[in-house]
Amino acid sequence: MTNETLKSIIDLVNNMKQKKPIVECLTNRVTINDCANMLLAMGASPIMAEIECEMAEIMAVSGALVMNLGLLDEPYLSAMRAAAKAAKEQGKPIILDPVGAGASKLRDRVCAEMIELAEPDIIRGNMSEIRALCGGSIKSRGVDASSDDEVTDENRGEFGELVRSLAEKTGSVVCATGAIDVTAAPDGRVCYVKNGHEMLCGVTGTGCMCSAMTGAMAAAGDPFTAAAAAVVMLGIAGEQAHEYTAENESGIGTFKVKLFDYIYLMSDEDFIKRAKIIED
Question: Could you point out which of 35, 56, 172, 250 has its C-alpha 20 to 30 Å from the C-alpha of 160?
Fold first, then answer.
């Protein structure tokens, strides 16, 4: 990792906290409350509007749009189409979370439609979802990543090329999250983030929360740095929450509470001491 990369991430995070951007999140109802609270904890402000007729007005006051495909009923999809149209017209960054890509033909069809319609600035999903968007075969576990798609130090180059290929194809920054997070830009840049802890997988919606965080970051800086900043921040907080939980012999409920605490309390020094970024 170069000092310039870390400085760019820290500067973006501080700019986001100063701007306190409003982020419109069309997200699934399983995680909507946690996504809203995560945005507040990091210094942004959430709007979770879902009504088609108000989307132009909502996007006028929002700094970014996050579209999460966890919920696919028709009113929700209509609102998503209207929000994407308004965000594009107003020049607001769009983040697409392709929840469950590869799990059903419906989800694959909607993912393809939203990528074409919205031309998202950032696509953020787990590695199995990203592989599905690339047209690869996956062993679906619903909305969870397959163990076959775990990124390691040994195979990260292979997965980096996969993510890079989707970025080039779509023109979007693509962020695939997992044990090692992979972020690629259409211009060929790739970085790997090794922060985090497996306990993050024990809390429902950490991926949705990561997408919401990415929206807040994108409202304050360029898409590539924004995607990297979000996964670094969530990963560091996951490590800190695990350390607290282990020291206090606590469980997953405590971990979740401390995750929000450490996001809220995160300082420049935490990034400097803990960020684990590899660049290609």
Answer: 35
